[in-house]
Amino acid sequence: MGDTVGDKPLEMMNEQAVAGKWSVMRSEINQLYTKLNELDQELNEHTLVINAIQPLDPARKCFRMIGGVLVERTVGEVLPAVQRNRDGLQEVITRLTEALEKKKKEFAEFEAKYKIKVRRGDEVMSRGEALKQGGASSSSSQGVLVGDASST
């Protein structure tokens, strides 16, 4: 009987560790999505600038923000630098997209390995917990209470 009680906390700790790792993995994926969105916006801004200054005379005066300082240059000097930055951003986006796909695959394998099911509220629930609870989760659902309009 002591072994059964002794094993129970170990099993719970293991489930907690799995849930913690699942949460960390999901957070990493969300961070990659966020970073990719930021870089996509930056790439679009660079493309807009390139499209705006490309048809201009290369000797024309142009201003560029470098490290928070606005500096005067020519279109001929700025255009290649902005194009290099855009190309560098595209490379970073490609690498981050590959890393995201790898993380998503690892995440899916992790969920399959531990038979993780997600219910409302992004709570982790193992297959065993789902079977134990059955359909009794409806009592914990949230709702909205609306009063009669004439009572005010």
UniProtKB/TrEMBL annotation:
Signal peptide as annotated in the record: none
Coiled-coil positions: 86-113
Annotated keywords: Chaperone, Coiled coil
Gene3D superfamilies registered for this protein in UniProt: 1.10.287.370
Region annotation (Disordered) ranges: 122-152
Xref: InterPro entries: PFD2, PFD_beta-like, Prefoldin
Family, as annotated: Belongs to the prefoldin subunit beta family.
The name this protein goes by in its record: Prefoldin subunit 2
